[in-house]
Write a structure and sequence with these properties.
Layout: E1 7-9, H1 12-26, E2 30-34, H2 50-54, E3 59-61, H3 66-78, E4 82-86, H4 97-104, H5 107-110, E5 120-125, H6 140-144, E6 150-152, H7 157-169, E7 174-179, E8 205-207, E9 219-222, E10 227-231, H8 235-246, E11 250-254, E12 257-259, H9 263-273, E13 276-283, H10 288-300, E14 309-313, H11 323-326, H12 330-342
Parallel strand pairs: 2-3, 2-4, 4-5, 5-7, 6-7, 10-11, 10-13, 13-14
Antiparallel strand pairs: 1-8, 6-12, 9-11
Helix pairs in contact: 1-7, 3-4, 8-12, 9-10
Length: about 350
């Protein structure tokens, strides 16, 4: 980041809004729409004030029809616009699944490059806000299985803004997942503790203008020598809390671009430490951690000193009453660290 560039402390909500503001001003082909994103400013207020600034033809509300929202966005993208659409919760993407999988993801391939679908689909995801089973899902693994889609999940305001701008300018359809637990600031990994400052910057010092964070680039969130942690979104901070709880000097890799991913950064870290723990909030079976395990095994087998550990959500619908038993916490992650070190 340019040290002379003017920055401001922002929450993730403010950083996402700033990204859309920058792109709406910079490119007249950018449009923002979805349920309640206009006058109301979005269910989490990520688009607050944008309709007043850019008008109802650039930022507008839609009916409650996720399939219709994405279908319209695909048509817009094919004819030169760059739509940024909001699905109110990631749990609601299922009615739009055919449009996302069969149309948006395939359009470039099916048309031999004559048409593209440069749309960004923003989805609040994950738990930690007492949303229950229909407002807490983490479906990232479903999207990574679909050829033609990009899947992104930031963990902090700086990355959120830079990645969203990169996604809007990219010619591929992007699933942009936003961890609700981090919208208004970080936490120390425990549900019963107050919000604390970001590890590096209070709230997140974010440039006020245009900048990009490269897609397909992971971030070394914390350097360490004992083992490698692969995480993204909220679980980056849970893993950080587990370092304190366990005393293990873990290197935490924030994937941020889930697929395509930065394999080189993963491989370099695991070959250095010889141990790997994978942490994600989604269910265990067929979660993205399974793919990460396979990749580490393929590329780092002769460097591994212990079995690869996975710490995830359980294979059940997301519970309301038992949310904090489901949500991978620092205790479970710290236990995995210790098992890896003792193997």
């Amino acid at each position: 980041m340019d040290e002379n560039r003017k920055t401001a402390p922002m929450t993730m909500i403010q950083a996402l809004r700033s990204a859309m503001d920058v792109m709406l001003e910079r490119d007249n082909n950018v449009v923002v729409f979805g349920q309640d994103v206009g006058y109301f400013g979005g269910v989490f207020r990520c688009t607050e004030g944008l309709q007043q600034k850019y008008g109802k033809s650039r930022v507008f509300d839609t009916p409650i029809s996720e399939g219709g929202i994405v279908g319209v966005a695909i048509g817009m993208g094919a004819y030169g616009l760059r739509p940024v659409v909001e699905i109110q919760f990631a749990d609601y993407f299922y009615p739009a699944c055919d449009q996302i999988v069969s149309e948006a993801a395939r359009l470039r391939y099916r048309s031999a490059g004559q048409f593209i679908a440069p749309l960004t689909i923003r989805m609040p995801c994950g738990g930690g806000i007492y949303g229950g089973q229909t407002h807490s899902q983490s479906p990232e693994a479903m999207f990574t299985h679909v050829c033609g889609l990009r899947t992104v999940m930031p963990s902090n305001p700086y990355d959120a803004k830079g990645l969203l701008i990169s996604c809007i300018e990219n010619d591929d359809p992007v699933i942009f997942l936003e961890p609700k637990r981090l919208y208004n600031g970080p936490f120390d990994g425990h549900h019963d503790k107050p919000v604390v400052p970001w590890s590096r910057h209070p709230l997140g010092e974010v440039p006020e203008g245009y900048y990009k964070v490269p897609l397909e680039s992971a971030s070394v969130f914390r350097e360490g020598k004992d083992l490698t942690v692969l995480a993204y979104g909220t679980m980056v901070f849970v893993s950080e809390a587990a370092v304190t709880e366990s005393g293990v000097d873990a290197e935490i890799i924030d994937l941020r671009s889930i697929w395509p991913l930065d394999l080189a950064t993963i491989v370099n870290s695991v070959r250095k430490t010889g141990r790997c723990v994978i942490v994600h909030e989604a269910t265990h079976t067929s979660g993205f951690g399974a793919e990460l395990t396979a990749l580490v095994q393929e590329h780092c087998f002769y460097h591994l000193e212990a079995p690869i550990e996975r710490v995830t959500g359980w294979d059940t619908p997301y519970p309301h009453a038992q949310e904090w038993a489901y949500f991978p916490g620092p205790g479970r992650v710290a236990a995995a660290f210790k098992r890896a070190m003792e193997a």
